[in-house]
Design goal:
The chain is an alpha+beta fold. The protein has 3 domains: 55 residues; 55 residues; 103 residues, Sandwich (Immunoglobulin-like). Helix content is 38%, strand content 24%. The chain has 7 helices and 9 strands. The strands form 2 sheets. A 5-stranded antiparallel β-sheet has the order 6-3-2-1-9, covered by helices on one side. It has a 4-stranded antiparallel β-sheet with strand order 5-4-7-8, with no helix packed on it. β2 and β3 form a beta hairpin. The protein is globular and about 60 Å long. It starts with a helix and ends with a strand. About 14% of the residues have low confidence.
Length: 229
Amino acid sequence: MADKDEIEGVAGEYVLGTLDKAERDAVEAESAGDPALRAAIGDWAGRLQPLADLAGETPPPASLWSGILGRIRATGGDARVLLLERTVRRLRIAAVGFGAIAAGLAIFIISERELPPPPMAGMNYVSVLNGEGGRPAFVAMVNTETGMIKLRRVGEAPPPDKSFELWQVPETGPTVSMGVADQQSDLMPMNVSLKAGEKLAISLEPKGGSPTGQATGPVVYVGDLLAVK
């Protein structure tokens, strides 16, 4: 994979989790012999750490443990289930750190079965808004269940006398303001209906936002709205 833009695009989609399992497997196979692709994946993972920071912790459902054991048994892993159950019983006796260790054991077994990674709970869309040179400046996560957008700035702050403003860029029709984005992290209500294939954009506006309802300053960052699989 020699084209730099292609490498950046593939690495970004891999880290964001927008590829299906076959595509992820192909990227992993390619990266094994492609140092540039491996480096790009590592770079994207570091730059998009705010995704993990914003997602927060979600407690697992009570049925998770029995579901894990059932899936392992269904693939002929009874012996491993027995070993895991014995290990967990010993950990319960030890008590200290049981929750974290048991979760680690479960993740270890699931990863060995090459199960695809779970989607981010409740997050329906994600967009990485890039500036010149393809460097991320904002990460947006859209949750249509709650009707909220989490916007995280990973680039530079606006000048003191200016404001960043977030816009919906639909496939047809005028852009729609979604709010001023001056904080490093903003939680915004969805005032429009968003869908995959549209774009989000950030413009540089007078302090407090556009006075006209449309972008009056330069559009400095743009990103595609991607469905999270």
